Amino acid sequence: MHVLTIGGTGMLLGATKWLLKQGHTVSVVSRRAEQVCRGDWAVNTHPISVDYRHTQELRGRISQALSLYGPVELAVLWIHSDAPDAFSVIADEVSRAATAPWRLFHVRGSMAHVHPESPSVPLNCRYRQVILGFVRETGTSRWLTHEEISDGLVRAITADCERLIVGALEPWADRPV
Fold first, then answer.
1. What order do you get walking across the sheet with 2-6 strand by strand?
2. Cα distance between the two ends of the chain
3. How buried is residue 35: exposed, middle or buried, by Cβ count under 10 Å (0-12/13-18/19+)?
4. Cα 172 from chain centre
5. Contact indicator for 69, 48 with CB cutoff of 8 Å
6. ω before 47 within 30° of 0 (cis)?
7. Residues 6 or more apart from 95 whose CB is under 8 A from it?
8. Which residue of 39, 47, 83, 101 lies most exposed, with the fewest beta carbons within 10 A?
9. Which residue numbers in the chain have pLDDT < 70?
10. Angle at 153 between CA 97 and CA 156, to 5 degrees
């Protein structure tokens, strides 16, 4: 299966490695993808070195990856708010090349709890959300570790959850400052 990840070299690194261990071909979008996709990463990993804030370049690089490695059946997107067009560009390009319905796991920060609206997606896209919360510990709270985030994403992919909250979102006042 061809998988596309954005955020797969940072906090989602564990999930990207898990996808590779499952035998998937993984295209990794990152500003430094070619530096990261070496050694153990080299097998079945295809770096797409692009800053996803650069819309036209992103569109071209995704289209090129789809031509080279085939349709994407699963996409994992962790996109910051400073790239308002990236989500729709990726969803449109992947959908255009798809030969069957595909799944998109949209990793979202805890503010998705406060602003729960979902983006519009093409008809052949099966949209899923993974919302990142926090961990309450004795007398305090903390944000999730990269390992906890990746583990939650793997759970969501494995169970094909439409919406999974990793950690806690309530009480909202207990979140880390």
1. 45-49, 25-30, 2-6, 74-77, 102-108, 125-132, 163-166
2. 40
3. exposed
4. 24
5. no
6. no
7. 102, 121, 122, 123, 124, 125
8. 39
9. 32-43
10. 80
Whats the size of the chain, residue-wise?
Answer: 177
Closest CA to 27 of 53, 1, 51: 1
Tokens for 161? 């959850």
What Cα–Cα distance (Å) separates residue 26 from each residue in 48, 116, 138, 159? 10, 29, 39, 20
Residue type, 157: I
Predicted local distance difference test score (pLDDT) of residue 101: 97
Could you tell me which of 144, 164, 145 has the C-alpha nearest to residue 154? 164
Comparing CA positions, the residue from 140, 156, 139 lying closest to residue 148 is 156
Return the number of other C-beta atoms located less than 10 Å from residue 116's C-beta. 11
Distance CA 176, CA 36 (A): 30
67: which residues sit within 8 A by CB, 6+ positions away? 97
Question: In sequence order, what E strands does 23-73 have?
Answer: 25-30, 45-49
Stated pTM of the model: 0.92
